[in-house]
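Posted in: Structural Biology > Protein-Ligand Complexes

Title: Requesting predicted complex, magnesium ion in pocket

I'd be grateful if someone could produce the 3D structure tokens for the following input. Sequence and ligand are given below.
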Amino acid sequence: MKISFDLDDTIIPGIKTFATEPQTIIHRIFGIEKIRKGTIELFKALKTQNHKVGIYTTSFRSVYKIKLLFLLNGFSVDFVINQNKHLHVLKNSQNKPSKYPSLFNIDIHIDDSKGVAIEGEKYNFRTIIVDEDVENWKDFVLKNIEI
Ligand SMILES: [Mg+2]
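-- Reply #1 --
Done. Output follows.
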């Protein structure tokens, strides 16, 4: 399957807070943001199950910067959809949800926003919503993908 992850408040703490991976000197030099603890382990587990793993964010961070964020944490993401790509693809669409994973052939989208789950019901795409206080988000996501 093709699986996408939101960035803000799902992988990168912002309004919501959660434990993060340790930052290295290299991360600081490149201005790499902190990522949620267990993210790379989770991504690698999904890859070993032959899933495609990528990012779908409504932020305007560049594709290059997002790829670098994960590369410098030891993982090469399969695809990145940022707000620019999203707006480009939805230009001629009558529906304008904040995210539209099925338009990008994404099977499951993981996000912190309950609003995205509601959009998923309306526009027929599958979501997994992760709260900030989920104990072990790697296991939580892996379990929910199997359902
Ligand atoms: Mg979010």
